[in-house]
Amino acid sequence: MNRIGPGGRGTSSHRIATLAALIAALLIVAPWRGQTVHAATAPQTGEVLGYASPVELLFSPDGTRLYVLCQDSGEVRVLNATTYAPIQTIVVGHVPRGFFLTPDGNRLFVANSWDDTISVIDTRALKVAATWHAGMEPSSVVEDSAGKYLYVANRISNDVAVLDAHTGSEVKRLAAGRGTSYMTLSPDGQRIYVTHVYPNPAPLGSQPESEITVIDTASAEVINRIPLPSIAGAFHIAVTSNSRLGVVAELHPKNLLPMTQVEQGWAFEDTLTLFGSGVQNKTVEVPLDDLDSYAVRPFGVAITPDGSHLYVSSGGSDIVTAINLPHLQRYVHTQHGPIVYNLAAGAHYVVARIPVGKDPRGMAVSADGRRLLVANRLDDTISVIDTPTSKVVTTIALAPSRRLWTENFGLQMFSEMTIATPGQRRCPACHIDERHRNAKRMKLTPQQQVEALRRGQQAFYTASYSFHGGMGCTNCHIDTTMDGMRWNFEPAGLGRNIVENMLLEDIRNTTPYDWSGINPNLPTQGGPRTEQFIWRSQNFDVRTLADLSAYINSLPARPNRWRLPNGELTPSQQRGKQIFDRTVDDFGKPIPLANRCNFCHSGPLGTDHRKVDVGTRGPNDDSGLFVTAQLTNIALTAPYLHDGSAATLEEIWTIYNPHDQHGRTNDLTKDQLNDLINYLRTR
Amino acid sequence: MRGPLFLFLAALYAGIPAPSRALPPGTAAPLGADFIVTAAPVYVPLAEMHGRERFPHGAQLLLVHDGKATPLVAGFAETADADISFDAKRVLFAGKRTTGDPWQIWELTLQDGSVRNVIQTEGDAERPFYLPGGRMVWAQRTASGFRIESAPDGHPPKVPFLNPTAGPGILPLTYIQTSTFPATILADGRILFESGYPLGEGATPELYVVYADGSGVRALRPFQGRARWGGSELASGDVVFTQGSSLARFTSSLLQQTPIAAPHAEYAGAIQETASGAWLLSARRTGEAHDAIDRWIPGAAALETVLAQRGDDLVEPVLLAPRTPPRRFPSDLHPWKYANLLALDSRLSLEGNLKQTPASVRLETQDPNGRVQVNGTAPVAPDGSFFVKVPENRPIRFLVLDRNGAVLRRERGWFWSRGGEQRACIGCHTGPALSPENRTPEVLLRTTTPVDLTGDSPLTATRTDVQKGNTR
Pick from A264, A346, A496: which is nearest to B253 by CB? Predict the structure, then answer.
């Protein structure tokens, strides 16, 4: 296997220098795969070497260029598609998540998810020619075959924006599902298939369900919503060249079962759904997992031009699964009843599990179908797979990105290393405490802090710590957010104390953790508790747990889309803030201190960190005391309350607060309640 | 204690010829790695499962280097069952100081040749294996056969993370009335063990798994009618075992076993995978009187003899090389004297799904004398689910009944639940390939309090004693 550095195949002296640096780097940092590029390039004073984090790949139509979308560095890297030598780096917006190349190869559209913009790149000049506004958190972009409209999937506004492909002006919005994220244009150009990373709202206790939103490109209208029963999150779709068969990668959770184990697909299954005329216009869900191993978080899907093979990247398992597509179709046609629960089904169609880099995401197949390129997000590499042999033949290392050091994560890095164990009278981890004391004295350089955060990020996204590698942190915390579902953890009792999942961003100062407040800090939350009751297998080592905690502590809140750009509040939001801060109700009666919104939801994060009974205890809850939830980006995190019983913010007060125990609200008019909610959305 | 091994290793590392016990003429071929093997005039692999001796004429551990074998330790009348520590610095083994002694667990430190008795027990203790986290397991002879037990191995783990299975005492891991023997420790931390099928009363050897705290016992794969024993795990995760006298394997992708097209021979027990991917195994070729140690490259047409010794069966080869420790299992047992069991759909079974929904489920237990007791019945919800509280640490089995109390299906064997275990299963003998549907079981929608079938509750249906065998 060849490993090609960022210098590619330039001059011979360059090659020799690169090779020498590479060998030296390998000797120095061999145990930390993927960091070789960093060892080869020293940071300058005042800057650190950051990570590129490739997430998507595209070949140019003539096959000469490879475009690499880099999420953490906010760049498009342009490489020679044969030698993989760098050609150009183009800076785009923050956290780009998807891109699309026009059929003529002249324009590259990039969806910048945290900027709510689309970068339009002129590929002849290799420059950003325009930046267009899109919806809330644009995550992918597709142009129709006619070049008339540009479709943008918006994750937070749950819709698809239709833009004029020449001017960028918005023509209309198409309602899609919750967490609208990825789109694929069918090869015949007639349809755009849209997937969603969160399940659609559903009645309490029912199975999660997502959908494939089908857009007709001729009319620019939604013409179908293909239900994906039992699916919580769906990612990329690939369609065969004859447009008859579509395949979507997805997560099939088991959140309605008490989580007594991980094995046997008890917590999650990783699956594909086939749809289209190739399966009689039905949907057929098939497993990707085996009996004793998993293909966790299937993300990218690619089909060879001849339709012989299907490839699926699994971010949590660091593998690409190669599937014989005709075998899969034949197997599906011969089966009666559900296939998805048969973990031995894959033996009929899986031909290889190909180890690649960390957190493999988007993939690209060469025009001749002989090369499959895989973007390994968390080790900054691209694996080149020889499809006839299903072997990685080359690994392309991307150069680090240089950035000025402005953050200081070190203050939080080792500040929470006291590990308590639920139900333990004595600390069983005194050795860890000793390490903690040592760790607190450590002074990390900015570069070391960046590297520690990267290791924490890798720990967050891998499934390797759980039993049989069945799941990772991000299975439930999709892209560090939440999954919109309720879970029943085993120690809480079977069928008891079911709790809703929480957003992880900006939680640094929101201790204690867990709705019950049982975990005083992140190392406790992610340490023994996670090991015993979630992974059910040997957990992170001490350093990894520290890195993981630091990474989670470093997660900022994503931009709040309900605030005005100038930071001011709309009149409705201002009225809502007055209600939030009020001391007297609509009848002129003083509101007791503890019954005012801003008493418990105090401070910048909207929590007083205390356990409070707001009257939401259900029949299967052991206690009515729950930690005050933080309000950070609360508009995104439905359902609400500890058990997810409130489907919307409105329901918190219109259904679940009959006795004003959750704040004095029953005096409010509908308009006042709307104002309050409009204000809360700005938090 | 300083024995021949110490001298041998000292000589080996000093680069001078090692003193070697004179061996009978045999076939030897360099393997490229040292290994330990048990040599015995007679080896009856499954004898102990039926109450007889595996090594009726004794056994001795040999250290093999470049095809030459020397005794691993001196001062023992019999030695067997070597297991190498993960860092390859120590060897656990079963040994008898004198012929009349019971087998006990000993540990040899390779650096200085010292030997210590790891744990003293009454009766035979054999087949030891290192567990991660500073523990070990072995088979302990009891009145009702061999039982797998666990205890600290005397070497505190470097990182003493929380592990409720840890403690100073002996922790029994199997709780049935028939013998159980550890076969290997799987990479996932579970103990692969041999016992009869059906578990708890059958005589056909079969492979089972249990977590390191004794919870979660189940068959590795559904029974297929023939004996399976001597399991070991490859780097790929495949489990290779002996069936009859052939080799077969389980892969992660298949429920059923697949045959291994190895050269014709009688194979005996676990194999060892070398760093090169070749297998070290014990085989007896046609016409030969004893098992030899052979090397086989999977797919090759022939075996290559590594070591043969006239008059001895050479079995249980183990490579003397560092290896990746299995994953440590973090026990989550609660401090209870009972267990909770949830079945999602008792209609489902690999033997065919029941067409009618059971009305109730009966729990039977077995006392130490093998007598069967009925602990009571619990209702089954319309979706086939039930939720019950069962006694800890004793053989139990379920029978599903129709509305008239007639038995619709009974579990074939016995299993157990550890105190504080909360276990959920899909159905009766559904096998490990069936993943559960994402659906709240109806029984939990009705109540989250399990029906008490511990036999201790006055609310439980009348507990009755049944003579052994009467219910079958």
Answer: A346
Q: A513: buried, middle or exposed (CB in 10 Å: 19+, 13-18, 0-12)? A: buried
* Cβ neighbour number for residue A172 with a 10 Å cutoff: 12
Gyration radius (Cα) of chain B, Å = 24
Residue B305 lies in a domain: yes
Establish if B171 belongs to a structural domain.
yes
For residue B472, tell me if it sits in a domain.
Answer: no
**Residue B329 is assigned to a structural domain of this protein:** no
Highest mean pLDDT among A20-29, A510-519, B33-42: B33-42
| End-to-end CA, chain A | 51
- Per the CB < 8 Å rule, is A344 touching B440? no
Q: Over the stretch B417-455, which tens digit does the pLDDT of each residue have?
A: 999 999 999 998 899 999 999 999 999 999 999 999 998
Would you call B162 an interface residue with chain A, using a CB distance cutoff of 8 Å? Answer: yes
**Beta-carbon separation of B188 and A292 below 8 A:** yes
Question: Which residues in chain B (320-339) have CB-CB distances under 8 A to chain A?
Answer: 327-332, 334
B362 and B283 co-located in one domain: no
* Contact (CB, 8 A) for A76 and A122: no
Q: What is the dihedral of CA A258, A262, A265, A270, to 10 degrees?
A: 110
Select the CATH number that applies to the domain covering A407-554 from these four: 1.10.760, 1.10.3470, 1.20.120, 1.10.10: 1.10.760
For the domain made up of A571-680, give the CATH fold.
Cytochrome Bc1 Complex; Chain D, domain 2 (1.10.760)
The answer, yes or no, to whether residue B470 has pLDDT greater than 50, is no
CATH number, domain at B403? 2.60.40.1120
Where among B262, B285, B319 does a domain terminate?
A: B319
Structure tokens at B458: 């006055």
Over 60: is that where the pLDDT of B48 sits? yes
Which residue in this structure is represented by tokens 């019954």?
Answer: A595
What is the model's pTM? 0.90
CA distance A668 to A652: 13
Residues 6 or more apart whose CB falls under 8 angstroms from that of A571 comprise: none
CA of B210: how far to CAs of A253, A308, B57, B132, B172, in Å? 26, 41, 32, 15, 12
Nearest to B438 among A207, A260, A347 (CB): A207
Domain that holds residue B198: 4-319
Q: Per-residue pLDDT tens for A591-610? A: 999 999 999 999 999 999 99
CB pairs under 8 A between A and B: 146
CB < 8 Å to B423, chain A: 260
Residues of chain B with Cβ-Cβ distance to A497 below 8 Å are none
Residues B44 and B78 both lie in one domain: yes
**A303: its two tokens:** 């089909």
CATH of the domain at B19: 2.120.10.30
Determine the pLDDT at residue A406: 57
